Amino acid sequence: MDFSFSDEQLMLQDVARRIAKEKIATSAEHFDATGEYPLENIQLLGENGLMAIEVPEQYGGSGMDPISSVLAIIEVSAADAAHATIMSVNNSLFCNAVLAYGSEAQKQTYVRAIAEGSEIGAFALTESQSGSDATAMRCRAVKQDDGSYVINGQKSWITSGPVARYVVLFAMTDPTKGSRGITAFMIDANRPGYGRGKTEPKLGVRASATCEIEFQDYVARAEDVIGKEGEGFKIAMSLLDSGRIGIASQAVGIARAAYEASVAYVKERKSFGAPIGTFQMIQAKVADMKCKLDAAMLLTLRAAWLKSQGRRFSTEAAVAKLTASEAAMWIAHQAVQIHGGMGYSKEMPLERYFRDAKITEIYEGTSEIQRMVIARNETGLR
Ligand code: CAA
Ligand code: FAD
Question: Which tens digit of pLDDT belongs to each residue from 290-304?
């Protein structure tokens, strides 16, 4: 067992930490308050190879491993979770879709544009009536005689939807086949038949723009299919295995920021003539926060390590996402409590950590769905 990181992993972590401290932490409050999309910061992440971390260098990416992604997302998330949402979806759900299942032409066209930081990618699975029950989708792609598909329907809650040029879309090509009737497509938002709804106002991760997208007789060419017809649901599920490592990393970043702020505060804040960190009830909170943070971090790294070894990591990704998201929520909650009135104030970032932590228990599969995935995989029962 080796708990150390390679020089390359540490270098990427360092790049992410520098941008996070200098540009993201300093603007996080503004983007949280306004809900504006942080375009310049995202472009800066792209220019530094952080929007295509695992993309091979031949397609313009950083050519790094899944552990590097974890380290980089944690740094960005500790500064601002909304930036980490955009980064994680682009890296794990969009880039991985094309890398793992796309044709050579798709890799050259779509991944290269994303890796250069000039475009951003999105992933569209959820619909208004089908979130957890993803196979209940209604978005329909009807095959034409020339091999193209005409797509009609809507997708909800699409991260980066308001800005994304390219979207990995899942649509029903054969409703009689259930999950085996779903196909993945590469969508270009600049083509006719593509529409965007209003940006959703949200509790947290407010700078990560989210919206509904609509398809009205959008024509996808035969070469826009990702993988094979009917394989879309398995593709979505396997991408979400990777995506859940990204969200676990995001949760670890929020938890670390809340924990570090708390450790600093309990040393400086005095009550009854002593630093509050000398009180046993506060010490217990610090100790429990540390245990949950370390467990979340190690489980996230375990899932990433299994992925980097080419081994199965579906259960471990769900374990990491469930543990890390619940740790982030709990730690952020305790951090607000430790800060007293200041924890509730917008003058400090604790209330933002608290609001941002909540989403990690919801998207890329709720905590209930992670428990379902883990228990099904462990027992073989359904
Ligand atoms: N990898 C590959 N294939 C998989 C798989 C995986 N991890 N998990 C399931 N499959 C396959 C199954 O083997 C099965 O294949 P067969 O047809 O050959 O039998 C097929 O997929 C259907 O599987 P299930 O019968 O298990 O499907 P289900 O309808 O019971 O659903 C579920 C399972 C786990 C609940 C799934 O629907 C799910 O994960 N729901 C949550 C959806 C989700 O996470 N959405 C996230 C949207 S993206 C997002 O949220 C981004 C963001 O926030 C930033
Ligand atoms: P529902 O599925 O309606 O669930 C409601 C409640 O019922 C939850 O507590 C759930 O856990 C519970 N529940 C449902 N089924 C079961 C069950 N079988 N057993 C026990 N409990 C159950 N989607 C995308 O495709 N792309 C994106 O980029 C994207 N980004 C998002 C960004 C944000 C900010 C948000 C809020 C959502 C995003 N989503 C995205 C959608 C997200 O993945 C879904 O919201 C999530 O999967 C839950 O689906 P739902 O909202 O429909 O809730």
Answer: 999 999 999 999 999
